[in-house]
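Researcher: Let's do a round of design. I'm pasting the structure tokens now; please hold your answer until I've finished.
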């Protein structure tokens, strides 16, 4: 379960910003908003958290930071060679941040322990890296597993690794860790099991869907084919979409004819070898005709909104089934507000979310605030200051009675994080 995420000097985020998913006193008392972590450092975690703000305020910078963090942990040791640049993007509107490392840190609970793991990187190297752990056992303290810091004057790394690990093995791993790769990733790549819980949570239990991601239909189709049709249908029908059945046919991936024409022989052979293990799906939706009988539509004949809901169905149901953490940028995109509320309700309910999956999403759609859909502890706001730096702050910083009163005050600009529109005057 995710407890906290910090980022600095990345895209529109300049100074260090922290987003916490630790439940406050109010939400901790209500199981539909939070669940116990069994760790004394953070007794309850939120089921859902939302970041509200206008366009270009920094919402996508936050989800992109999550995505960079996850991808770098998983791929830094295997997909890079010595000297490869790290594709990190600094805050560019202030020369003070040029060349300064970008920093990322995450705190989460996995397999009975709380972990705090982070790193800072520039284009050339990992500058710092650290990992701390606290067991859920009473009376235990936070302890350091390792720290790594680059000394730019001496051009070498300073290491501080727990003496509980075999020295000879650690020394070997240090030598194998490239400047542009993480020690954590390198250790796991070399079968060092002590860090596997951390790496496994990042790789398997935390997922990001960004605004610019092409949310493919394939995963939902595969879920249907593996016995999840009833749940997918229920998810789609909850949006008042009149689909009474879904038919999925599995086939082999075929190279599009246009690609066969443009690829050289070596590239074509490589793609054919890759395609042997790939699947394709033919999806038809079933509707009732006026007067009786069934009408069959190819999925691409459905509306964009229906296709978006179909694409979301598989990932969301998978996250709920396995207790994962899901981060979604602009959840409101192509979704009706009622569907947004339904998705939030799925995560907030201990009945439909018994494994304590988490949903973190960004939005500028305030309809989800009405009623008791979100607790005020679950709401964060983002805006840019006068220097175009994104700033995140929790609603709990303000005295708010309920989310209904917050919605009205938010739209009036009382809490910031709304667009400041200027009138446009045409020519004389």
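Researcher: That's everything. Go ahead.
Model: Designed sequence:
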């Amino acid at each position: 379960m995710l407890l906290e995420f910090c980022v600095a000097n990345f895209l529109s985020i300049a100074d260090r910003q922290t987003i916490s998913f630790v439940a406050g006193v109010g939400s901790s008392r209500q199981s539909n908003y939070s669940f116990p972590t069994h760790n004394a450092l953070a007794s309850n975690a939120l089921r859902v958290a939302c970041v509200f703000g206008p366009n270009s305020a920094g919402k996508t910078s936050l989800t992109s930071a999550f995505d960079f963090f996850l991808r770098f942990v998983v791929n830094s040791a295997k997909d890079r060679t010595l000297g490869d640049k790290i594709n990190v993007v600094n805050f560019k509107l202030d020369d003070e941040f040029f060349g300064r490392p970008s920093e990322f840190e995450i705190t989460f609970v996995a397999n009975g322990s709380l972990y705090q793991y982070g790193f800072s990187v520039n284009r050339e190297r990992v500058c710092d890296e650290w990992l701390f752990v606290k067991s859920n056992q009473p009376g235990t303290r936070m302890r350091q597993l390792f720290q790594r810091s680059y000394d730019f004057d001496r051009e070498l790394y300073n290491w501080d690794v727990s003496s509980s690990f075999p020295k000879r093995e650690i020394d070997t791993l240090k030598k194998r860790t490239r400047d542009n790769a993480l020690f954590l990733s390198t250790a796991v790549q070399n079968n060092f099991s002590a860090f596997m819980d951390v790496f496994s949570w990042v790789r398997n239990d935390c997922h990001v869907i960004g605004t610019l991601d092409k949310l493919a239909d394939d995963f939902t189709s595969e879920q249907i084919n593996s016995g999840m049709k009833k749940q997918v249908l229920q998810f789609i029908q909850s949006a008042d979409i009149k689909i009474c059945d879904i038919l999925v046919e599995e086939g082999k991936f075929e190279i599009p004819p246009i690609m066969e024409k443009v690829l050289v022989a070596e590239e074509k052979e490589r793609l054919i070898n890759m395609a042997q293990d790939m699947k394709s799906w033919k999806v038809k939706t079933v509707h009732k005709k006026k007067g009786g009988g069934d009408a069959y539509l190819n999925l691409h004949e459905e509306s964009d909104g229906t296709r978006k809901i179909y694409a979301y169905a598989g990932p969301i149901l998978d996250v709920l089934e396995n207790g994962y953490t899901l981060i979604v940028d602009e959840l409101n995109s192509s979704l009706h507000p009622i569907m947004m509320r339904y998705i939030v309700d799925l995560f907030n309910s201990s009945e439909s979310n018994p494994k304590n999956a988490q949903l973190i999403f960004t939005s500028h759609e305030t309809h989800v605030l009405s009623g008791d859909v979100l607790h005020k502890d679950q709401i964060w706001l983002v805006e840019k200051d006068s220097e175009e730096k994104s700033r995140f702050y929790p609603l709990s910083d303000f005295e708010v009675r309920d989310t209904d009163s917050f919605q009205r005050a938010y739209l009036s600009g009382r809490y910031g994080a709304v667009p400041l529109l200027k009138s446009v005057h045409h020519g004389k």
